[in-house]
Amino acid sequence: MKPRVQWPVKPRKRTNPLLRWSRYFFFVVGILTLGYCGFMLLDAKLFQSNQSRRFQQAVQVSQPLASSIALLSAPVEAGFEPEESKGIPSREGAALGRIEISRIGLSAMIMEGIDDKTLRRAVGHFPGTELPGHQGNFVIAGHRDTFFRPLRKIRLDDEITLTTLHGSYRYRVDSTRVTQPEDISALDNSDDASMMTLVTCFPFEFVGHAPQRFVVRAHRILDAANPALPQK
């Protein structure tokens, strides 16, 4: 009987404790980051769903009262403030309506203000610019990686629909351009036209804080349902 050959056993290499804990640390950070992103997306989706439902209820309440004084009070009771004739809502975070661009699949509620909390949950109206349907420049902003991501597919002559408690307004895209952050010409007003400007960050695929801005400019289409512009 031949004796068993004992092969030498290689000693196991000891893992560097720092390397081992670094792996655990980055794994936990990755899980927490994914969880945070998921929570933010869920929060935005639930907020949009809730605001859209309340908006539809407010529209149903305001339409039958369009010719009476109650038109101005009913929306507030439903959680929506009426558009003021001077174009500046009185409350930060008030819902103004909904923007839709059917060709690119964009639909989002519009809130007053452009603070971080507002833009995380909706698209925001630049305070001080005009409101939908009024003469002047109605400017709204949104994040490129959430609500305004479909703007990467926008084309000239695309139609934009704005639905408010006072009716629906249609706009047609005139131009798109890329600007630098310090260029604030997108906020310029217009005294002889009803315009809309959409602003988001650019490039769309950029990771981190994008260095430029993507600007979409559109003009209002007058029709039989809304033939005239409200006076300032």
Relevant terms:
single chain; 232 residues; alpha+beta; Sortase, Chain: A; 8 strands; 26% strand; elongated
Task: Describe what this molecule looks like in 3D.
The protein has 232 residues and is an alpha+beta fold. It has one domain (26-221): Sortase (Sortase, Chain: A), CATH 2.40.260.10. The protein is built from three helices and eight strands; from the N terminus they run ααββαββββββ. The chain has an eight-stranded mixed barrel. Helix 3 (116-121) links the parallel strand 2 (106-112) and strand 3. Helix 1 (17-62) runs antiparallel to helix 2 (70-77). It is elongated, with a radius of gyration of 26 Å. The chain starts with 16 loop residues before the first helix and ends in an 11-residue tail after the last strand. Mean pLDDT is 80; it is low at 66-88.
Give a brief outline of the structure:
By secondary structure, the protein is α+β, with helices and mostly antiparallel strands. 26% of the residues lie in helices and 26% in strands. Helix 1 (17-62) runs antiparallel to helix 2 (70-77).
CATH architecture: Beta Barrel
**Sheet with the most strands, sense and barrel status:** 8 strands, mixed, barrel
Note the gap between the termini.
108 Å
Round the Cα radius of gyration to an integer and report it. 26 Å
Derived from helix and strand composition plus strand pairing, the structural class reads: alpha+beta
Determine the fraction of residues in helical runs and give it as a percent range. 25-40%
CATH topology: Sortase, Chain: A
Query: Could you state the order of secondary-structure elements as H and E?
Result: HHEEHEEEEEE
Give start-end ranges of low-pLDDT stretches: 66-88
* Number of beta-strand segments: 8
Strand-residue fraction? 25-35%
Average predicted local confidence, pLDDT:
80
Tally the helices: 3
Numbering strands along the chain, what is their spatial order in the largest sheet?
1-2-3-4-7-8-6-5
Number of domains: 1
| CATH homolog superfamily | Sortase
